């Protein structure tokens, strides 16, 4: 894919001159030329730009104001200012407020401008490569952590895959790019539960009444989660999302502070809706009934995010589900694959929960299940939703009625 370069200048003649002088770059760059900051921001909403080159003096939104908006909406976009204003104050404002990569005076030679844009493209590549590496490294590390913890408490980490998919659908409905911090926060949102005493866990699983002191311990689970991960590099924001995941939009709930409304991180506001929706759906039986419960307590939720959730997950005017409907299939447990989403629990024949419905199976889950089957009997089949695309990894050996056999990706 060619780098996307956006030029913004209110003088049409200058834009035409840039088009003419840079025509030899058409095969290398995907270029757009616009006459105002407003039109450029509208363009970037659907056509992300790697580099923007803007004039300073423009009617309405000037160059610095435009670059500030670009920085807020698309922080990875590299910003260049090309202007006829040579005064020191303009340069200082552009650097301090517009956070520009380079500053060039008009007239600027084609060679100088081309070199500046090439450097900006390389800078954008470095930024995005570093972010991608960071996201994948952190996400992979968190996934291993959750796989290990889910062995200890399957209930606490069930439904993470479903909630992640819903989070992605809602952020798309909001017109936002997918947040890696939100993705990791969803995975780690219940990590504080590992500190709950076994007596409380037993009461929660059995639906029994908690004492006031026990309720306080459960209420503070997000604080435990925040404290566990707050010192991990680059996860400071994730820790705050987890800390405020139960905070009402009206300021009620935990933590008991003055933070409310838009002052709560957007990801935390979204996560509260997802958590409450999942809990209500499990209790009420359908997602429609769950939304009805949330509407009853609408003051607790960001109205914009709640509307986006409703739009993304509920039925449209024609009665068609907005959330993708995936058909479940019955699979023998020895043919489970990494990535399968459990529709039903996997339990021993005595009723002990091994893997909870809503869990997205990892290789560790599968290996642990097969090892468990060496000791106790489990249900021979389970309902799963199988993802599209290439099959996930299978265990090297599977125990069947005929004994252990080698299984490859083609076996069904």
Describe this structure in words.
The protein has 412 residues and is of the alpha/beta class. It has 3 domains: 4-126, Rossmann fold, CATH 3.40.50.2300; 153-313, Hypothetical protein af1432; 329-406. It is 47% helix and 12% strand. It contains 15 helices and 12 strands. Strands 2-1-3-4-5 form a 5-stranded parallel sheet, with helices on both faces. A hairpin with a 5-residue loop joins strand 8 and strand 9 (353-355).
Helix content: 40-55%
Q: If you compute it from the alpha carbons, what radius of gyration comes out, rounded to the nearest whole angstrom?
A: 26 Å
Tell me the series of helices and strands, N- to C-terminal.
EHEHEHEHEHHHHHHHHHHEEEEHEEE
* CATH homology superfamily of the largest domain: Hypothetical protein af1432
Shape: elongated
Number of domains: 3
Terminal residue distance: 38 Å
Assign the CATH topology of the largest domain. Hypothetical protein af1432
State the strand order across the main sheet. Answer: 2-1-3-4-5
Regions with little confidence, pLDDT below 50 for 5+ residues: 316-321, 391-412
Q: What is the CATH class of the largest domain?
A: Mainly Alpha
Report strand %.
Answer: 5-15%
Please count the beta strands (DSSP E, at least 2 residues each): 12
Q: Count the helices. How many?
A: 15
Shape-level CATH architecture of the largest domain: Orthogonal Bundle
The main sheet comes to: 5 strands, parallel
Structural class: alpha/beta
Write down the overall mean pLDDT. 82
């Amino acid at each position: 894919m060619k780098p996307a370069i956006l030029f913004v200048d209110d003088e049409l003649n200058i834009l035409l001159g840039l088009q003419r002088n840079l025509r030899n770059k058409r095969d290398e760059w995907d270029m757009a030329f616009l006459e105002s900051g407003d039109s450029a921001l509208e363009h970037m909403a659907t056509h992300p730009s790697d580099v923007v080159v803007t004039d300073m003096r423009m009617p309405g939104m000037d160059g610095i104001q435009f670059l500030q908006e670009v920085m807020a909406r698309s922080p990875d976009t590299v910003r260049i200012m090309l202007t006829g204003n040579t005064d020191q104050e303009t340069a200082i404002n552009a650097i301090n407020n517009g956070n520009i990569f380079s500053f060039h005076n008009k007239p600027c030679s084609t060679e100088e401008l081309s070199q500046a844009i090439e450097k900006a493209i390389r800078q954008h590549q470095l930024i995005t490569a570093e972010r991608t590496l960071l996201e994948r490294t952190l996400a992979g590390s968190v996934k291993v952590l959750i796989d290990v913890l889910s062995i200890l408490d399957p209930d606490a980490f069930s439904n993470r895959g479903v909630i992640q998919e819903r989070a992605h659908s809602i952020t798309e409905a909001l017109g936002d790019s997918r947040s890696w911090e939100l993705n990791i926060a969803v995975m780690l949102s219940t990590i504080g539960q590992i500190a709950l005493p076994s007596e409380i866990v037993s009461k929660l699983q059995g639906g029994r009444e908690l004492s006031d002191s026990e309720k306080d311990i459960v209420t503070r689970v997000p604080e435990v989660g925040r404290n566990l991960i707050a010192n991990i590099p680059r996860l400071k924001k994730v820790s705050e999302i987890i800390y405020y995941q139960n905070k009402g939009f009206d300021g009620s709930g935990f933590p008991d502070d003055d933070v409310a409304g838009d002052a709560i991180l957007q990801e935390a506001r979204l996560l509260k809706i997802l958590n409450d929706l999942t809990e209500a759906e499990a209790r009420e039986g359908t997602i429609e009934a769950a939304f009805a419960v949330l509407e009853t307590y609408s003051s607790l939720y960001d109205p914009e995010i709640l509307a986006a959730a409703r739009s993304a997950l509920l039925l449209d005017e024609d009665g068609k589900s907005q959330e993708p409907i995936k058909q479940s299939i019955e699979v023998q447990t020895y043919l489970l694959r990494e990535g399968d989403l459990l529709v039903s629990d996997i339990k021993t024949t005595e009723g002990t929960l091994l893997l909870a419905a809503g869990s997205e199976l990892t290789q560790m889950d599968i290996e642990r299940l097969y090892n468990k089957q060496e000791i106790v009997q489990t249900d021979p089949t389970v309902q799963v939703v199988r993802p599209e695309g290439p099959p996930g990894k299978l265990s090297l050996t599977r125990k069947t009625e005929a004994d252990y056999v080698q299984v490859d990706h083609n076996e069904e």
